[in-house]
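Hi V.,

Quick status before I head out on leave. The structure for the redesign project is tokenized and pasted below; the design run finished overnight.
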């Protein structure tokens, strides 16, 4: 697989998101053996960047990844995140990027992942209660101690990115970027000015762009704790209207002789050698399909068609989730 550069960190240009193996998606946690085979297959195919977070589960996704990479740690660029679990008793889904919380969080992540260092450690969401300078100072301390190699931010906007980078180099921003979620294109010039890479999460539009959800009944059949059941793009009239986008991606896929998932990933790869999509799957067959997008070439006309896709109806997160995202 070809490589990409996130700051100074070189990775294979398609990564693997492990979240859905334990959290948020239908079937999460139901077949850990297949999830572990999926991570192994990804590594066999040349994937290096494996993405998890303390909040996924919480905790169990890191444990799963830790089991999967046992004996193969040196093949992995291991990325995890802190900042959505407050270890002072307030618990999960609380933003806390205070230095004290980070120092507790990192020890738990290292233990669950079965490693003595994290390659890329992200703040998961900006914490309005903690100046980013304090957070970055604590992360720089972890780098000095050798517990962390590179640091990143997630869903931070331009001002925070600049302030953070002034304290310690930010290697990557991890934010949602895909054919139907394009706002990161406003941040990209700043990332390039500062030499920061972009890790594109939910690059398949939470699976929607692959064309596997075609009817309201398909959404109904999802597990009750599958977050897509309440996502504005998957509900009501928005869902019906957004099907047009899936159809347009399918049309290009038919021209290319690839799958819609591969086209969605190949399009992201055309945007630069500093952008790394981390498609999420818990199935061997799909990690094979997604990783093969490395070899899919789009023509200038196909890229232009994809650039002009019908804009999505509905926010990419719920109102409550958007409250935690900087814009
Ligand atoms: N920083 C953040 O705040 C944040 C937020 C969300 C996600 N993430 C990270 O980004 C990663 C990827 O995002 P995501 O998982 O939310 O969304 P995604 O990659 O856009 O889509 C995942 C969904 O697509 C399905 N899928 C995967 N490959 C497919 C294929 N080839 N054909 C058909 N369906 C396919 C998966 O189902 P199966 O698993 O059943 O294959 C799953 O339902 C996560 O795993 C996580 O590590 C980070």
């Amino acid at each position: 697989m070809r490589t990409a550069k996130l700051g100074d960190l070189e990775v294979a240009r398609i990564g693997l998101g492990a979240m859905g193996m334990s959290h948020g998606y239908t079937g999460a946690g139901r077949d850990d053996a297949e999830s572990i085979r999926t991570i192994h297959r990804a590594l066999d195919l040349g994937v290096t960047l494996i993405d998890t977070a303390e909040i996924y589960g919480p905790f169990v996704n890191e444990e799963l990844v830790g089991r999967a990479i046992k004996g193969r740690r040196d093949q992995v660029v291991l990325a995890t995140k802190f900042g959505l679990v407050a270890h002072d008793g307030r618990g999960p889904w609380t933003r806390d990027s205070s230095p004290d919380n980070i120092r507790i969080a990192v020890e738990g992540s290292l233990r669950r992942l079965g490693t003595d260092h994290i390659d890329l450690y992200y703040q998961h969401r900006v914490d309005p209660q903690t100046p980013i300078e304090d957070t970055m100072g604590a992360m720089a301390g972890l780098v000095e101690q050798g517990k962390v190699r590179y640091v990143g931010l997630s869903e931070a906007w331009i001002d925070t990115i600049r302030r953070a980078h002034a304290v310690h180099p930010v290697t990557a921003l991890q934010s949602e970027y895909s054919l139907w979620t394009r706002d990161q294109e406003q941040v990209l010039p700043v990332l390039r000015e500062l030499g920061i890479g972009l890790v594109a999460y939910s690059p398949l539009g939470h699976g929607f762009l692959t064309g596997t959800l075609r009817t309201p009944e398909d959404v109904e059949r999802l597990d009750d704790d599958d977050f897509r059941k309440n996502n504005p793009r998957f509900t009501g009239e928005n869902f019906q209207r957004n099907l047009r986008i899936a159809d347009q991606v399918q049309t290009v896929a038919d021209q290319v002789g690839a799958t819609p998932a591969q086209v969605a990933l190949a399009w992201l790869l055309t945007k630069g050698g500093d952008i790394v999509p981390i498609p999420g799957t818990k199935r061997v067959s799909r990690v094979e399909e997604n990783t093969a997008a490395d070899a899919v070439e789009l023509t200038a006309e196909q890229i232009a068609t994809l650039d002009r896709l019908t804009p999505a109806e509905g926010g990419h997160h719920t109102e409550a989730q958007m409250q935690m995202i900087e814009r």
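Above is the designed sequence. The mean pLDDT is 98.

G. will cover questions while I'm gone.

Best,
W.
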